[in-house]
Amino acid sequence: MLICSAAAALDAPNERVMLTVDGHISTTNSGEQALFDRAMLANLDWRTIETYTSFTEGLNRFSGPTIASLLEAVGAQGAKLRAVAADDYAVTISIADAKKHGAILAMEHNGQQMGIRNKGPIWIVYPQSKAEAEAHTYYVQMIWQLVRIEVLAQAG
Fold first, then answer.
1. How far is the C-alpha of 102 from the C-alpha of 32, rounded, in Å?
2. pLDDT score for 153
3. Residue (of 92, 71, 90) closest to 24 by Cα position
4. Where would I find the H helices in 8-151?
5. In the chain, at which residue ranges do the beta strands (DSSP E only) sit?
6. pTM assigned to the model
């Protein structure tokens, strides 16, 4: 069951939609969905993190909005996220875990805007130590070419 509130709304995107959020959300801008262009995402709580990943060499710098700020913007009411890539690959992510660890929707890598050929335009990235990256601690959750997030209902 989708939870919506007519009182809450987001501005409509003015540019190409980069991310669609749906599911158990209360703030929308297109029917039962929240559509975001780059400018809308850039206006969320933008962070730059230096981290290691299992997919890159050495310490890297990633920038983008926090998952927490996106979920707040859409009034997310759930326990998990179903993150879907451009090729329909999908993973399930714990909302509490993503918030606790400060995961971001990376849109820039080492100061450069990310494109489809380099894991963009959006890549979920968790701040992690070299040891965590080598142990593949957040390997599954770090989905790239992200295009959609579905907020799933509370567990139980």
1. 27
2. 86
3. 71
4. 38-42, 67-73, 95-100, 130-134
5. 19-23, 34-36, 46-51, 60-65, 80-85, 90-94, 104-106, 108-109, 112-113, 123-125, 146-152
6. 0.91
Report the C-alpha gap between 15 and 99 in whole angstroms: 28
Say if residues 60 and 134 touch (Cβ distance below 8 Å).
no
- Residue count of the chain: 156
> Which pairs with CB-CB distance under 8 Å and at least 24 residues apart come from 36-40?
36/10, 36/70, 37/13, 38/107, 38/121, 39/13, 39/14, 39/15, 40/10, 40/11, 40/13
Three-state DSSP at 116 gives: helix
Mean pLDDT by groups of 10 residues along the chain of 156 residues: 48 96 96 97 97 94 98 96 97 96 97 93 96 92 97 75
Q: Are 105 and 23 in contact (CB under 8 A)?
A: no
Please choose, from the candidates 92, 156, 102, 105, the residue with its C-alpha nearest in 3D space to the C-alpha of residue 132: 102
